[in-house]
């Protein structure tokens, strides 16, 4: 921890050094699960636990406008994104996402991902492949087909690389960050142009496809989205879908480390596959925390939170809290078999109600894709040769260093159906 010129402690450097460990380390010594510190020179209060999540997701307490620092807006989310809205403008924009992404709105996406995966695995026969690198174009193909965004097959690898770069570079300075910014600029221009073509009737889009819905969406002011903002929101569908690559790679890691889970997945046990997907999302590190700003002067468990202060909710720490998850560092999908998951318990993608709050609207899609691809991965005949499978916790976002190299024998080409 550093001390600023006024003698106040600032945790920015510690966060950069400790990554996922930073908040759990700071909160370990707080019986009230709250810690007050400074980030980027600003008062910051970090909270953990289901009650804290309820407090955090109360719109009377926390606003999102002005909460996301520019380096994150310029890479991960985009300027003017749904993530940064509050109140009625948020609800109207969010309704577009929940209609497209929840409760069967995503029909067809998983099937497309399975088809793309099967085509890819046929080309893996007799080769060594990197699971991370192979999965991203599979998901990019599936989500572009599903949203109606036109992409030539030969352009998919570059698109997948740009979408991965936007996620990979949000929490760092240096080359990864600049790669992310360039990727975002390039893809926003491309998609803004596509939206304009759709509006002019120059491009055919299947009715009901996400591209058509975003192009036609009207915000709470009754206006169509500026093409730039429409591009940002289309990226907020295709980028995180491709980000499921991280979880698929973690699933591959889990199957290698704990091969005893392979059998039930291979059999296509749907209840177990869903539990496995939840355990991957709980166990492995992805989103470390989320942030907002205090609307007014607040108090949480005796700690004052001044109006305007940054408020963080520790997602990674909550997903590894032994009070919620006994033996939290044991990878145990069975903990989710028969367990009702509360709205504020399992928070890899935020908490609360996605319809009214900022919780991720892509959670059902994430689980459905992960279930389907974990089953296929378990059925894929492959070896995991010696490699660096370390998952460094100081790096945000992290992944197995090798990306998970798999050696696929020549005769394992034929995929097995999950149906
Ligand atoms: C790869 C797995 C994913 C992870 C780890 C993840 C994580 C998150 C997190 C932590 C949030 C912020 C919640 C909050 O601020 O309260 C979020 C929001 C969001 N996610 Fe995801 N997500 C994933 C997949 C998806 C998918 C597949 C989609 C869409 C297809 C999606 C679309 C969104 C959108 C639009 C928001 C903004 C919601 C709002 O501000 O109201 N995410 N996600």
Automatic annotation (TrEMBL):
The GO terms this record gives for MF are: heme binding; iron ion binding; monooxygenase activity; oxidoreductase activity, acting on paired donors, with incorporation or reduction of molecular oxygen
What the entry lists under Gene3D superfamilies is as follows: Cytochrome P450 (1.10.630.10)
- Residues annotated as binding heme are 360
Instruction: Give the superkingdom in one word.
Output: Bacteria
Query: Which GO biological process annotations does it have?
Result: sterol metabolic process
Q: Which InterPro entries does the protein's record reference?
A: Cyt_P450, Cyt_P450_E_grp-I, Cyt_P450_sf
By sequence similarity, the record places it as follows:
Belongs to the cytochrome P450 family.
Q: What is this protein called?
A: Cytochrome
Q: Which organism is it from?
A: Micromonospora maris
């Amino acid at each position: 921890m550093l001390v600023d010129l006024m003698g106040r402690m600032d945790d920015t450097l510690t966060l950069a050094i400790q990554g996922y460990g930073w908040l759990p380390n700071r909160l370990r010594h707080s019986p009230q699960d709250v810690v007050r510190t400074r980030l980027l020179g600003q008062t910051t209060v970090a909270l953990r636990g289901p009650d804290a999540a309820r407090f955090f997701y109360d719109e009377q307490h926390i606003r999102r406008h002005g909460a996301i620092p520019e380096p994150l807006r310029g890479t991960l989310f985009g300027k003017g994104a749904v993530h940064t809205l509050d109140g009625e403008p948020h609800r109207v924009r969010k309704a577009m996402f929940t209609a497209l992404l929840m409760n069967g709105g995503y029909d067809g996406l998983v099937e497309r991902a399975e088809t793309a995966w099967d085509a890819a695995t046929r080309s893996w026969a007799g080769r060594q492949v990197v699971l991370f690198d192979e999965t991203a174009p599979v998901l990019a193909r599936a989500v572009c087909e599903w949203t109606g965004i036109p992409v030539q097959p030969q352009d998919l690898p570059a698109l997948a690389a740009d979408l991965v770069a936007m996620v990979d570079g949000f929490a760092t300075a240096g080359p990864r960050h600049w790669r992310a910014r360039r990727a975002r600029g390039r893809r926003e221009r491309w998609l803004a142009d596509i939206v304009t073509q759709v509006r002019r009737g120059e491009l055919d889009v299947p009715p009901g496809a996400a591209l058509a819905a975003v192009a036609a969406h009207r915000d709470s002011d009754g206006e169509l989205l500026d093409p730039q903002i429409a591009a940002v929101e289309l990226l907020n569908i295709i980028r995180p879908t491709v980000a499921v690559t991280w979880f698929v790679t973690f699933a591959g890691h889990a199957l290698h480390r704990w091969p005893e889970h392979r059998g039930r997945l291979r059999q296509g046990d749907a209840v177990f596959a869903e539990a496995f997907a939840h355990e991957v999302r709980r166990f492995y590190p992805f989103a470390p925390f989320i942030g907002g700003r205090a609307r007014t002067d607040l108090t949480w468990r005796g700690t004052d939170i001044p109006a305007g202060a940054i408020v963080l909710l520790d997602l990674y720490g909550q997903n590894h809290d032994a009070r919620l998850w006994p033996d939290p560092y044991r990878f145990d999908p069975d903990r989710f078999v028969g367990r009702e998951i509360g709205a504020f318990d399992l928070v890899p993608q935020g908490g609360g109600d996605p319809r009214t709050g900022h919780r991720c609207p892509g959670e059902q899609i994430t689980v459905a894709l992960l279930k389907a691809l974990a089953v296929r991965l378990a059925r894929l005949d492959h070896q995991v040769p010696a490699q660096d499978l370390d998952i460094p916790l100081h790096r945000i976002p992290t992944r197995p260093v090798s990306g998970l190299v798999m050696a696929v024998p020549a005769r394992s080409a034929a995929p097995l159906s999950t149906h």
